[in-house]
Amino acid sequence: MSYISVGDKYIPHTNRPFNESAYRSRQMQAGIAKQRCALQNGFFDKTFNRIFERSYYGTLSGPVEAMSPLSVPRKAHRPPGRNIVTSPPKKGSGYSYPNVTLSKIELYASDPYGRAKEALKREATVHRSKLRGGPFKLNLHPSDYFQGNPYRTDKPLPPANKPVPPGQKVSPVPFKPPSPSKKIGGMKAGTFDTYPSHSADPYIIRRSKKSNQEPVFRPAPGPKSTPVKSIIAVNVNRSVHSANYTSAIPTVMTV
After folding, report:
1. Do the Cβ atoms of 6 and 238 come closer than 8 Å?
2. Are the C-beta atoms of 225 and 234 separated by less than 8 Å?
3. N or C: fewer beta carbons within 10 Å in the chain?
4. Percent of the chain scoring above 70 in pLDDT
C-alpha cells in the first residue's frame, strides 16, 4: 500500500541505482586511478629520506656543524690580593659610653632663657613688615540663608488676639435625618443627583468622493480548499470491501 499514489508499484531503495544518469550515454572519465608502488614518483623529493636518531632531517634549525671537543682557552688564573689591614673594632654597642663611636662626644652648651620665644617674635615682626594693606574680604560669599536667622523680621508684630468670650452651649444631641436613606433603584431615586441626561453621539463628517477617483482594487478570492480523503483511506477502501471483508480481515475470536 503506497502513501503517495494509488495503485503504483512500490520499488524498494535497495533495487534502485545510486546514480541513474551514470548508466545512460557516455560519461566523462578523469583518468585511471594510481596504484600503490614503491617508487618515488608520487613524492616531491627525488630521493627517499628517513629520520634516524641524531638526524637533522625534518627539523626547523637544519644541520648543525661539528664541534671540537677541546675546551675554550681561558686566561691565566690570578689570585686575589691581600685584604686591607685595619684596627680591630671596639667592643660594645657604644650606647651611653663616651669615645666609643666614630664621632666625638658633644660638649654641653647652655641656651639663653626664652630663646625660642624671642626667635618666634622676631620672625612675626619681619612677616608683619612685609604685609601691604589688610586681608581681602569678599561680601558675596555663599551662605545657607539670606541672613543668620531666616525667621527674623523687622516689621512690627500685630496686636495680640483677644480671648473669645464663651458662647452658648451647643446641645450634645446628635443630628438625625427626618427620614431614612433611600435605596438605589432603577430610577436612581436614592442618589443625590438626578439621572444623567443622554448625550448625543458626535457627528461624523462625511467627505465627498472625487468624481475621477478610481475604486479600491480588491483581488478576486482564490479557490477554496475542499475536504480530500487520504491515500491510506482510498487504498483501504479499494482493497477491503463488502465482497472480501471476511477473507481480507482475519478473525480474532472464533467460537
Report:
1. yes
2. no
3. C
4. 65
Q: Please give the biggest Cα pair distance in the chain.
A: 148
Alpha carbon separation from 21 to 15, 41, 226 (Å, rounded): 15, 35, 40
The enclosing H or E element of 122 equals helix 115-130
Tracing cell 452651649 back to the chain, one arrives at 169
Residue length of the chain:
255
Cα 225 off chain centre by: 50
What's the CA gap between 195 and 189, in Å, rounded?
Answer: 8
Residues 6+ apart with CB under 8 A from 42: 34
Q: What is the pTM (predicted TM-score) of this model?
A: 0.17
Residue that has been written with the C-alpha cell 482510498 in this structure? 234
